[in-house]
């Protein structure tokens, strides 16, 4: 049993599985495409000779260049951190639809600033653009799976939330390969580095336009007491009349869930925080969930996304080969995500995959780190990789395979 298998909790009319629910999920998933792309392209783009020449990096010391590169990457992450914090307030007061509109608008503005930055004096504009893009990413990455899961019928909820992961991986795949394309087929001019930055605007623009059209989550509307609008949206999404027994049962289930929430938690902005603090068992579960997210990111995947070209160079890969080897990294990430997701998660279980992936990934990182420390390929360059270098690359790709379950445990919550 996997994401492609329909498991209905009750008799479900065929009309429920209509094109509207898939279109809404696809539009929302433009946001994950945006996130996947922007996290993948930047690491290689800032190493392009045209980018270094544009901002005068080729005339700076190595330490200064490293500092600027770190700023470009880390300011985006800082923006995403605060965007994630703002998500709860936006989603609570403004709803899912307008949160996506705001997130995509802020991201698009940030991408525009990045494209408009020029010369060494333009680094400040570049930094501002990266912060804004990070803010939009932080909001979108949290709101999109919530929105999709609230819209989806139970039988296809996992499938539709899987579109979120699909969008992320497709965006990442494009991000990893676009730099190889511009480096191989374009002269090192302003246009060479601006194209990868400009492509960010495509998924962000699609999300912005689409978010203006999509329907607000009926569940959020019910929560806010806007029952008439909630019923209109729910019947439109399900393509059923208000009097249909399926709609009646779904509304009853939503009402029951809201009544339980009011009785046990409350519906005010601060109520969930008070409820959690008053119940140690729930606090412990929240702690476990937060730690899963923390250690997922602590596995190093974000750092490797941004600095994969640097890692390959450290292993001893020549500059001419770094581009396509980084692209292969993106391909393995995308392919293995769906191998785990569609074929192995339900057979082997989330916990087993998580533990096995953690152990294997840790071993791979220790092997790569030991090779770099002992051999020091950057200090002892050769015309071709030796056996140790090839083994290090193998373990790097094996790490990519093993670490994917870290990002699939969340599907157990859908």
UniProtKB/TrEMBL annotation:
Key words, A-Z: Cell membrane, Membrane, Quinate metabolism, Transmembrane, Transmembrane helix, Transport, Ubl conjugation
Location within or outside the cell: Cell membrane
GO cellular component: plasma membrane
Major subcellular site: membrane
Major facilitator superfamily (MFS) profile domain ranges (all copies): 24-414
Xref: SUPFAM superfamilies: MFS general substrate transporter
Function: Integral membrane transporter that imports quinic acid to be catabolized as a carbon source.
Family the UniProt entry places it in: Belongs to the major facilitator superfamily. Sugar transporter (TC 2.A.1.1) family.
Protein's name in the database: Quinate transporter
